[in-house]
Structure formats: structure tokens, C-alpha cells
Design a protein that fits this description.
The protein has eleven helices and 20 strands. By secondary structure, the chain is an alpha+beta fold. It has a six-stranded mixed β-sheet with strand order 6-7-8-3-9-10, sandwiched between helices. A hairpin with a 4-residue loop joins strand 16 and strand 17 (about 310-315). The structure holds adenosine-5'-triphosphate (ATP) and magnesium ion. Adenosine-5'-triphosphate binds near residues 19, 37 and 41.
Length: about 375
């Protein structure tokens, strides 16, 4: 098990596409790190630099104290599962898994033993005699993971390994992956653009946008205290509501879209100290109430979407022409006054729970709690 460390790593393609910009990132030994970011943010590029498939344009990569920046992929001993899992179609499952050992000329009897061991761990031992096209997506996925694990890698690198699976299978393989990673204590870097997957798997999440590290921390921390409006607006289904507001001079209150939002005393004091009068007010759909009376942000019900136990209420706020949609997740009592209001187009008030309201700097977009 190794610690993986990126120091000032950048990657520029063809002298102009800055895919990764000056990333400092340490993945502790045995840690499950998830790289989370939108399409094109540089996730695969980072993974390939750790694998040795791409060389950084600048910066260094270390496995513990060893500088591996110039070490070729074969000598790094990493297990890589590609975004499209890339099994060899003409080889049976057994040979697919055995391949990394065979090219290292590991003796046949040891190969057999190791393939059997890893196949049983992933519960695909009954499939060793089939070709990839004779497997379901989830089974192919597990073969790809087995092939990455069989050489006992120092680091496991997974590039969106669950993206081709249906929702149910994804949940299933996800749980297996988490259990396996903990069992083996493998330093793991898992790439995804699915924030639910990131929350579920990660010891820590590194959020990437436009090649830059936005925030790194445990899932709960990143969720509750996003570093900036990008992270706030990317994490969560639906993500945090973000509206421009003006702070009161005396009271811990922000004026937003013709209404008001209470903010915590701490944040209010911080804003004063920083001389911030305008701020982007952030509140999560889950930490917000809807009421029929002020105070709050006035709005009109736009849609009501059942989500199972809870409902997602979409509310239009602001003047016509510059209105915005706010999302609130709530579970209400059937037959209540609120339920009746929700079924009509009546006026409601959005009242975020004070402790969970965040304020972001209007220019830097950084959360005031970090300033
Ligand atoms: N070999 C390459 N040559 C030139 N540009 C590249 C190359 N590989 C990636 N890029 C560019 O670098 C940026 C980052 O790409 P990357 O594949 O790392 O994104 P990603 O975060 O993995 O996206 P996705 O979620 O879609 O897989 C993109 O703008 C992409 O077009
Ligand atoms: Mg990618």
C-alpha cells in the first residue's frame, strides 16, 4: 500500500489545451479517493498521469517517497480499469484476468491460483470459461476489476467503472467495490461525474472543474460546507439553491428576491468583517421549509414532483422577466394546509433553515466560512 502524491501537476495537450492545472493532491495509503467533476474537467487525464500513460507537462508524482514521474506504466504496478472496461474480446474471462500475469512471465500454476482467488473474491469464478460477449455488463465490469486486482497493484485506478451499468446493478457493484477496497486496504482513485456515487464511496472527495482542484474533503464536509459556488451547485440532487442577496446592516438577515433569509450570527459577523454587503445566498433543498406566511422568500409553485417518501417542490421567485427557480425537498402531511396550497398555484414563502444557509463572496464565489 502506498501514498500517492501529486505536486503541482499540470497537463497541456498539443501546447494549448490546459486539461489539468497545477494540482496538489495527496491520497493516503489505503484511502478511497473519488475524483468528481463534470465531463471534460480533467479527471481521466489525472488518472492516466498517475498510471503513467500520460507524462505531466509539469509537476511531480510520488508513490510514497519514490518519484515515479518518469517511471513507465509497467513498472508502476497500478491496476487500471478503463472508462469502457476494454476487455480483450477474443480471450475468455480466464485469459483476460490472467493477462497481466502472463506478460510478466509468472509461472502457470501461480497464475491459475491467483486468477481463481481474485475471481472468487468478485464472484465470477463460474464465468471463467466464457467470452466477454457472453457476459452481462455487471459481470464484464467485475472481470475488468479482477484483471486490475490480480497483479496485486500498489494503487487501484478506476475510471467511471460503473457508468455503463443500469441503476440497480450500479448500486450493487458499488457496494461490492467499497467492501472489497476496504478488505484489501488498497489505495484507490475512483473517477466519476456522479455525485451520488462519490458520496457513497469516498473517504474523501476531490472536486475538479476545468482542470483545477476546487475542494477536497470528506463527503459530508464537501456537501455541508462547499468551498465555492461551483461545488455548491454541483453536489446534491438537486444541488444547492444560489441566489443573489443583500445583507442587512444591523440584523443577520439577507434580502433575496423581495423577501428575506435569516443567516447565522457567525456568518453575519464574518461578512461585516470582510466588508461584504452583497453575497450569493446558498441553501440546500433539504434544509429549507415552505410556509404559507412570511417571513421568507415569496414565490409561486411551479411544479410538484413526487420522489418517493418526499416531494420536490419547484418554486418560481422574483419579478417576471428575471425570475429564477428554487427547489425544496419536503415531506408534508397529506391533507394539511400546505398540501392544499401546493396543489394550487398559490403564493408560498421559502424559509431556509438558518444554520444551513451559506454565503458566498460575490466576486471570488468562495464561501465566507473559508475567508
Ligand atoms: N489526448 C488528448 N489530446 C488532446 N486533448 C485531450 C486529450 N485527452 C483529453 N483532452 C482534453 O482535455 C480535457 C480533459 O479531458 P479528460 O478526458 O481528462 O476529461 P474527463 O474529466 O475525464 O471527462 P469525462 O467525464 O467526459 O470522461 C478535455 O478538454 C479534453 O478534450
Ligand atoms: Mg474521463
Amino acid at each position: 500500500m502506498v501514498e500517492v502524491r501529486l505536486e503541482g501537476v499540470s497537463k497541456v495537450f498539443d501546447g494549448r489545451v490546459a486539461a489539468v492545472r497545477d494540482i496538489d493532491l495527496t491520497i493516503e495509503s489505503g484511502e478511497f479517493m473519488v475524483l468528481l467533476g463534470p465531463s471534460g474537467s480533467g479527471k481521466t487525464t489525472i488518472l492516466y498521469m498517475v498510471a503513467g500513460l500520460y507524462k505531466p507537462s509539469s509537476g511531480r508524482i510520488y508513490f510514497d517517497d519514490e518519484d515515479v514521474t518518469d517511471v513507465p506504466p509497467m513498472k508502476r504496478n497500478v491496476g487500471l480499469v478503463f472508462q469502457n472496461y476494454a476487455l480483450y474480446p477474443h480471450m475468455k474471462v480466464y485469459d483476460n484476468i490472467a493477462f497481466p500475469l502472463k506478460i510478466r512471465r509468472v509461472p502457470e500454476d501461480i497464475v491459475r491460483e491467483k486468477v481463481k482467488e481474485v475471481a472468487s473474491m468478485l464472484r465470477i469464478d463460474h464465468l471463467l470459461d466464457r467470452y466477454p460477449w457472453q457476459l452481462s455488463g455487471g459481470q464484464q465490469q467485475r472481470v475488468a476489476i479482477a484483471r486490475a486486482l490480480v497483479k496485486e497493484p500498489r494503487v487501484l485506478l478506476l475510471d467511471e467503472p460503473l457508468s455503463n451499468l443500469d441503476a440497480l446493478l450500479r448500486l450493487h457493484v458499488r457496494s461490492e467495490l467499497k467492501k472489497l477496497q476496504k478488505q484489501l486496504g488498497l489505495t484507490t482513485i475512483h473517477v466519476t461525474h456522479d455525485q451520488g456515487e462519490a458520496m457513497a464511496l469516498a473517504d474523501r472527495i476531490a472536486v475538479i472543474n476545468e482542470g483545477k482542484l476546487q475542494q477536497i474533503g470528506p463527503p459530508r464536509k464537501v456537501f455541508d460546507s462547499p468551498y465555492n459556488t461551483f461545488v455548491a451547485g454541483f453536489l446534491g440532487t438537486p444541488p444547492m439553491n444560489l441566489l443573489e442577496g443583500t445583507l442587512d446592516r444591523e440584523e443577520p438577515v439577507a434580502y433575496v428576491k423581495g423577501g428575506e433569509v435569516e443567516v447565522s450570527e457567525d456568518l453575519f459577523v464574518k461578512a461585516k468583517k470582510l466588508g461584504v454587503e452583497e453575497a450569493i445566498v446558498g441553501f440546500r433543498p433539504e434544509y429549507t421549509r415552505i410556509t404559507l406566511d412570511p417571513p421568507g422568500i415569496p414565490g409561486r409553485i411551479y411544479t410538484v414532483e413526487p420522489m418517493g417518501k418526499e416531494i420536490l417542490v419547484v418554486i418560481e421567485v422574483g419579478e417576471e422577466g428575471e425570475s429564477e427557480l428554487v427547489r425544496v425537498v419536503t415531506d408534508y402531511t397529506a391533507g394539511s394546509k400546505l398540501q392544499k396550497a401546493l396543489s394550487s398555484e398559490s403564493l408560498v414563502y421559502i424559509r431556509p433553515i438558518k444554520e444551513y444557509v451559506r454565503l458566498f463572496h460575490p466576486e471570488s464565489k468562495i464561501s465566507l466560512e473559508y475567508l
